[in-house]
Amino acid sequence: MKILHIVRQYGPVGGMERYVLEVTKAQAELGANVHVLCECCHVQPPENILVHRLGQGIRKPRWLSALLFSRKVTAWINEHPQLNTIIHSHETTGEHHITTFHGPPFARIRQSGWWKRISLRVYANLWLEERELCAPQVQKVSPNSELIAQELLNAYPETQQRLTRPVVPGVEAGELRSERKIPANGGIICFIGKEWKRKGLDRTVAIVEQLRKQRPDCELWVLGPEPENISHLFKNWHGGYRLLGLADSREILPQVDLLLHPARREPFGMVITEALATQVPVIVSDQCGAASEINALQGLVLDEHAATEKWATACNEFLNRATAPPLYKHSWKDVACEYLDIYASIKL
């Protein structure tokens, strides 16, 4: 089977881009003939993947960048006809049989005031998105989480027949958290996320401040943001926190006792399943796509707007648990196989 994946940036430069990289690698290892069409490649491609580079385009404005990339993709495919090839896009292009939808629909803007909807940017993004999802040649639309699937149905009910079950990201097996007794007045809580405002670091700080009334030696470790950008959140703290910047989460997670992720908006949240695959329990908001992957022994999903006290109580309860949560398993090979099953239903 020949597959052409379309992505603007090929490599681990973001969550979506890493998803594409891992899926293509896993599909190639399963014997598929994998090609990638991109603007730029940020990794040394495996020998069993052929990468076609279109050259870096403009980055801003984003709507124009997306439009121009789409035109380059169409021109390339017209010059290089893809016979007997599954074309799998991860961008707002117009030549694919299947698209994976990685984030909330732009069409949510229709719920905003009219004065926010009158612009070339809005018209272009809505046109690009509708074409990506609803063009005649599109046979399958794969959301990356249950949360995104529901939002797609709300925004584009006409996609219902094309919508597949969510194909959630895989997670690599790594070092597991060792079983250890957490001190009754302590414990290590971790927050991970470079886009800290959207992911709720300010809420995390408030929750841990509340929790420290019960567990005064509890620590908060923060990965992702540059320390100088978030130090103001800790101006009233006297120790008990570590700002680790871009430290490797795979090395840090086995050292912590709980992952806290009270995000305002998180289409999936790969760090959540990474924590579960390390046997670190998680407490997350209901705005995280990965919430559907959590069972009662592995963590808790709370209303985004739940009171700080409720979040703190939940954290305390999980820190008091003596047994490790069940190990989460969902490999990139599993994800690749899910897509191969979907491809089998596509008519070329």
TrEMBL record:
UniProt keyword Protein biosynthesis, yes or no: no
Pfam families in the record: Glyco_trans_1_4, Glyco_transf_4
InterPro entries linked: Glyco_trans_4-like_N
Record-linked CDD domains: GT4_PimA-like
Tagged with keyword Glycosyltransferase: yes
Gene3D superfamilies: Glycogen Phosphorylase B
One Gene Ontology MF term: glycosyltransferase activity
Start and end residues of each Glycosyltransferase subfamily 4-like N-terminal domain: 13-159
Record key words, sorted: Glycosyltransferase, Transferase
Domain of life: Bacteria
Identification of the protein by name: UDP-glucose:(Heptosyl)LPS alpha-1,3-glucosyltransferase
